[in-house]
Specification:
The chain is mainly alpha-helical. Helix content is 80%, strand content 0%.
Length: 433
């Protein structure tokens, strides 16, 4: 167990609110850049960058390049985890925002397959790897700069505000693409309209950069630096002394990462291939994620009162139980009920895992290796879970278009998460034995 039950240096309520708000906005901008690719993959990339495939396969190939970004996330996480542990959380956050934002803007300027041939999807893949590299370094440090400011008894609540950045960053491009597809004829949207959300990233990055530059450094890291106690080899220390936390933490991450990718991204391509109108899926996903934005801080607050493990376990069990019914709604064409299924699995199941996750994972490690530890767990766990994104097309083809093998994959990872969380210690300071 880490020493994270300690109270940070005095932080005024106004400063704490400012840090939480700044972390939430900065994370939203960065996740907007990360998830905008997923929305475009389902809508346009299959036609503009992978035109030689049939619609379903083209969408899954495009989503495969989306999943490929997860392979770069551990590299970014380990590098910027080291930077966060050695030189500060704030320095890492500013750098990652620039990497992801500039890469997103460049996609808005890219020529398509029709213009430059095979170079177009290859460039897209390279930029996607940059996205993964940047977001891998962002996530752990964004969590810590908030959690290390927060009082221990409210760390779950304030940590959940950082987590809001991911669904908010997903819903912004989803809403923007929905507006553009409603306002523009198909030919204009395919010709230039799809580029607008990518180019708009430059403005959002400017706002996010300004906000992040106003952040104060984590008081816990600042105290560590004053004592010159930073670890020279954070990753080496972790692998020697915290192997159990790393292994079980990765297991706890699996279901959360897989559920969001599967039920906010992959199911859209699958349902539309079954004939479900795209607006139905867009609206259903939008409703579920908007409700999740409200559920996340609630789940974080519940984790402060009830413990990290009970809330997390409820989320994993909900996802295990609902995975088959939600895909069944799409497979059997119960279009009018899809939104209810997505609310259950995203707004309740995913939120109950993702809300407490920031504080839960951060509290597993001591200050001098915390950025590296949380980055390792977040990004290696996300990578292992994202294999489902790459395997989705193969599993669907193997099952002749039926979703049950993919559902089985989600169920197995949910079981691994349940077992991992059961084996982890309760980290909420007021509930530790």
């Amino acid at each position: 167990m880490s020493e994270f039950g300690e109270r940070p240096a005095p932080v005024t309520p106004a400063m704490l609110r400012r840090v939480a708000f700044a972390s939430c906005i900065g994370s939203t901008v960065e996740w907007y850049d990360f998830f905008i690719y997923a929305t475009a993959s389902a809508l346009v990339f299959n036609k503009l960058f992978f035109p030689s495939f049939d619609p379903l396969v083209g969408s899954l190939v495009a989503l495969g390049t989306y999943a490929a970004g997860f392979f770069a996330r551990p590299v970014g996480g380990l590098l910027f985890g080291y930077i966060g542990d050695r030189y500060g959380r704030k320095n890492a956050l500013v750098t990652t925002l620039l990497i992801v934002g500039i890469a997103t803007f460049v996609i808005g300027l890219m020529p398509t397959y029709e213009t430059i041939g095979i170079a177009a999807p290859l460039l897209l893949l390279f930029i996607r790897l940059l996205h993964g590299f940047g977001i891998g370094g962002e996530q752990g440090n964004a969590i810590l700069i908030t959690c290390e400011h927060a009082p221990p008894e409210r760390r779950g609540f304030f940590g959940a505000w950082v987590q809001i950045g991911a669904p908010a960053g997903f819903v912004l491009p989803l809403g923007l693409f929905a507006i553009l597809t409603a306002l523009l004829p198909d030919d204009q949207f395919m010709a230039w309209g799809w580029r607008i959300p990518f180019l708009a990233s430059l403005l959002l990055v400017g706002i996010g950069l300004y906000i992040r530059l106003q952040l104060s450094e984590s008081p816990m890291f600042a105290a560590l630096r004053r004592k010159e106690q930073q670890s020279r080899s954070p990753l080496g220390t972790l692998l020697k002394t915290h192997r159990r936390q790393l292994l079980l933490g990765c297991g706890a991450k699996l279901a959360e990462s897989t559920v969001f990718t599967t039920f906010a991204v992959l199911i859209v391509a699958y349902a539309t291939s079954r004939g479900v109108p795209r607006p139905v899926m867009t609206e259903a996903t939008l409703i579920a994620i908007l409700i999740e934005l409200l559920a996340l801080p609630l789940c974080g607050a519940l984790a402060d009162r009830l413990g990290r493990r009970p809330v997390y376990l409820v989320g994993a069990v909900v996802c295990l139980v609902l995975a088959a019914p939600v895909f069944g709604l799409a497979y059997y064409r119960h279009d009018e009920l899809i939104w209810i299924g997505l609310i259950g699995i995203l707004s309740i199941g995913h939120a109950a895992m993702y809300g407490p996750q920031a504080a839960f994972f951060a509290e597993l490690f001591p200050t001098e290796v915390r950025a590296s530890g949380i980055s390792f767990v977040q990004q290696i766990g996300a990578l292992l879970g994202s294999v489902g994104g790459l395997a989705a097309g193969w599993l669907l083809q193997l099952d002749q278009g039926r979703p049950w093998l993919l559902v089985g994959y989600v169920a197995v990872l949910s079981l691994i998460t349940i077992l991992s969380v059961v084996r982890l210690p309760e980290t909420a300071p007021n509930l530790q034995a």
